[in-house]
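Re: iron/sulfur cluster structure - here you go.
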Amino acid sequence: MAQLLNYVDTALFALAPYVAMFTFFLVSIQRYRAQTFSFSSLSSQLLENKRHFWALVPFHYGILVVLAGHLVAFLIPRSILLWNSHPLRLYVLEISALAFGILSLVGLIAAVARRLSNSKVRKVTSPVDAVLYFLLLVQLASGVAIAILYPWGTSWFATSMTPYLWSLVKFSPDVTLMAAAPHLVKLHVFNAFVVIGLFPFTRLVHILVVPNPYLWRKPQVVRWYGLGARG
Amino acid sequence: MNVRAQIGTMFHLDKCIGCHTCSLACKNIWTDRRGTEYMWWNNVETKPGTGYPCQWEDQEKFRGGWEKHNGSIRLKSTGKARIVTNIFHNPHMPSMDDYYEPWTYDYQHLFNAPEGPDQPTARPISMVTGEHIDVESGPNWDDDLGGSPVYAEHDPNLAGLSEEQRRQLFSVEQLVFFYLPRICNHCLNPACVASCPSGALYKRGEDGIVLVDQKRCRAWRSCIAACPYKKVFFNWHTGKSEKCILCYPRLETGQAPACFHSCVGRIRYLGVLLYDAERIADAANLPTEQLIDAQREMILDPHDSHVIENALKNGISDAVIEAAQDSPVYKFVKVWKIALPPHIEFRTLPMLFYVPPMAPVMAQRRDGALDSVSDNLFHDIEQARVPLKFLANLLGAGQEGKVLYALRKQKAVRWYRRALTVGDVDLETARRMLRDADCTEHEAQAIYELTSLCTVEQRFVIPPMLREQAIESLKDPHEQKQNAGFGFLSGPRRGL
Ligand code: SF4
Ligand code: SF4
């Protein structure tokens, strides 16, 4: 039995991440080349304009902060631990992480409710959207649950998750770090790989085309035949 | 001087009969696809009225166009810093309710209905959801002042009119309205282009047509809110913005755009305008009262040798310069100064101009017939049923002077022609009117001819675009033989 679980853990936490990353890169590049036209998120704001605000704004702000938090803990775990060495600072970090997690979850629930209840918006919801919304709900709900049930996640992420993730990056996955984790954490991590793997098939691709050049381009764009854009 | 060519357009509002033929010509060609049903790249509004989308002129609500800010101008709705907060939810974007929910009718029911005591009916079905809907508004729901208390009385151009003027506008005995056909103005300082985070919108260098690159558009929706004329639309099916393309495939083959070609009232004119692109930024930044003059200044005289020399230097071909010299739009806008840009206070420098409508010429007069020997021959313009202030809000950036000038000239031309052909007005009075209206007899004759007797070739002076040559220099057409064209065909399919 233990042996079997071992295999499962290996499949979920040593194999799946690579499969996910592989499809992520391969399909994203392929889709960008072959289907540039659909490389965005199909906005439904035109069809419903009010609840759109209350769903999409909290969701995006929440998720951006939470993701940034994960990234920071992954990149500079020691600074996080140092910060957390002081209880008050630990509380502040924990509470704000939880707050933004809840913010994004509430936003997502509002977005799903909007999709289900507005007949026009339902019309532009594809099966892939449904799958994605389900996965995201699992992801955010498990994340918030972890933050509540297993406190001081900001610290233990730095001590046990970060080494695991780095082991993946170094192509020598250390599954033992994950094997000891609670089931909820396992679910959260594995579901993340699923989301990454499906990323290029979903509306999430809009993240890859976030329009940074806008920040430095000139306001007016003029194109000449055969010459492309010129100021 | 940086000379560029622009396909300029002009609508003579005095001739528009509000038949909507233009709108239908456009719809049949361009916007009969899924996701575009609600779009009218060309629409015709009744003025006073709230238009389409409802109250588009109210920039407190929609925040379109540019505003003065610390000595320069910035977009009202978005900007480099504000894009971060606006990108998830665009706070100023109209929703479908501001346009209308497109519908068709359940015609099949007329054939399939089971036999019964009543005639079967064809109920309206939403073209978005396919469900039965109750139709509550449409693209010109207030046509010919239908539902005035709900629509016309909320026209943003009524701002600044006195109670008396408003009452006069809507009192049953002297009810008045005119039509305002609208397409994208293919502006010189387009807010839509400036707002697009992806840089998908652009102005074509050769002819100034403003287009959306469908492959680069990523549904950020900034342009929809930024265009103060609400002439960029969101295709909810493909997730792309779409707008009037001035029928460039037709123009490139020497045909007028469909709405121009089909116009029943022959109110539409099209021709090349040469302008100085260097002056765009400065002109758009001037105080509101100077905008109309500044834009006229930017439009260059195509007969001036200095201009021609610079145009040639910029690669503008002889044929295009010739077309510019022949351009009817140039005459109306720059030489005669009777065509005005709509709402230039939005600062996009629109390149579609309107000749303000005269009709009905007569104001309410107590003793019947018009007194032609009155000292003030233009009295009826100031007392016209359409208050000058209203037209000024629409076409004069709030200043009555510009509109008055255009109306006086038009009236003088009418009287001059009346003196010549009908003869019930004496020629001397007509000449005096012309002088007062800053118009020579020669000019009056020219205005009359281009307004009333114009042929298709005079209304549409389409330059040879030489697009084929441009394409040939980069692509070998023979290579594409038996292929499906130069463009791309790719459906809106998403996901797995
Ligand atoms: S009217 Fe001007 S701002 Fe609006 S879509 Fe056309 S070019 Fe852009
Ligand atoms: S076709 Fe011409 S006359 Fe008829 S509504 Fe359109 S612009 Fe006016």
